[in-house]
């Protein structure tokens, strides 16, 4: 097997690992509503973390053996794999609108990533890291506040998923800066990026877990899948000097791809809102027992004959 084929295989397996991890996260969120962010007592949550970690390692391995323009779009297949896996193992099929929305979001994201060109690798300076981290923290905080403010469960989940996508995307940016700096300056020259990786990765895990609580699987997963690389690409364009391929035409195609992804997310959101956006019903054994009082017939007193 040549290097290119190996990179494609690793990227596909990585997407499958991410998809299964998301399915497990969603099941934990539905069955343990008392701990929306970190259900540490649930083995399934730790299994989901392990699957996501495996997906990340496989994705890095794919980038080692293959070009970024091929590996990154393949990573967008996570949502495409998640739908049939959930249908087979959980006997839960997504509706037509959800399937169309997922496909549009994935195709748009793949197009956007394939149009992003590479620049000479360089790491961020300390000042740039602070600016990027501050802007990202502001965006995450704003989306989290929005999630606390809105009343519709589906919009709350989408806001949390968007915040998780921002956190994961910035964590990827810090990982890239750390890797580039490590290769040129050694780890001692890039220690400032380590707290950023830990902070944003942990925030992404907690927020993504909470996002599955009220909107099912498809909408939150698609949001994270789109926002994560979109944020990383935006930072790459503005900080790392990356550009769009094919000049002005490529930039226009990238805008069209972004609009396509946004349309897919809008379809997913409206689909969940039309269904009520309450997520799945809890199994009967997980619902609190409500005592039922049997109605008693009123006791009729014997009629007394009153003699005058």
TrEMBL record:
Main location per the UniProt record: membrane
Keywords assigned by UniProt, alphabetized: Membrane, Transmembrane, Transmembrane helix
Membrane topology: Multi-pass membrane protein
GO cellular component, one term: membrane
A molecular function (GO) term: magnesium ion transmembrane transporter activity
Compartmental location: Membrane
InterPro entries: EmrE-like, Mg_trans_NIPA
Transmembrane intervals: 6-24, 45-65, 71-90, 97-118, 130-147, 159-182, 188-207, 219-240, 246-268
Database matches in NCBIfam families: DMT_1 (NF038012)
Protein name: Magnesium transporter NIPA
Species whose genome carries this gene: Streptomyces finlayi
